[in-house]
Amino acid sequence: MSELLKATDVSVHAGAEMLVEPVSLALTAGRPFTLLGETGSGKSLLAQAIIGTLPAGLAAAGQVTLAGRALDLARRDGHRALWGRLIGVLPQEPWLSLDPLMPARAQIAEGHAFVRGLSWAEANAAADRDLAGLGLQEAADRRPDQLSGGMAQRVAFAAARAGGARIVVADEPTKGLDIGRRDEVTRLLLDEVAAGGALLTITHDLGVARRLGGELAVMLKGRVVERGPAAEVLAHPRHDYTRRLIAADPASWPQVPPRPGTGAPVLRAEGLSVSRGGRRLFDGLGLDLQPGEIVGIWGPSGCGKSTLGDVLLGLARPDQGRVTRGAGLAPQRFQKLYQDPPSAFPRCLALGRALDDLVRLHRLDGARIPQLMSRLRLSPALLARRPAEVSGGELQRLALLRLLLLDPVFLFADEPTSRLDLITQAEVTGLLTEVARETGMALLIVSHDPELLSRSADRVISLASPETAGPRLRHQAA
Amino acid sequence: MRPLTQAILYRASQAVLVALLVGMLTFLMMQALPGDMAFRIAAGRYGYDAVNAEAAEAVRRELGLDRPALAAFGTWLWDLMRLDFGTSVISGAPVMDEIRHQLGASLQLAGAALALSFLIGPPVGILAGLRAGGWLDRTLLVVSTALRSVPQFLMGLILIVLVSIQLGWLPAAGYGRPVHFVLPALTLALGLAAVSARVARDAMAAVAASPYYAFGRWKGLSEGQLLRRHGLRNIGVTLVTYLGLQFAMLVEGVVVIEAIFSWPGIGHALVHAIFGRDVPMVQGTVLLLGLGFVALNTAVDLTARWIDPRGRGAGEARS
Question: Which parts of the chain span the membrane according to its record (chain A) (predicted)?
Answer without folding.
Answer: none
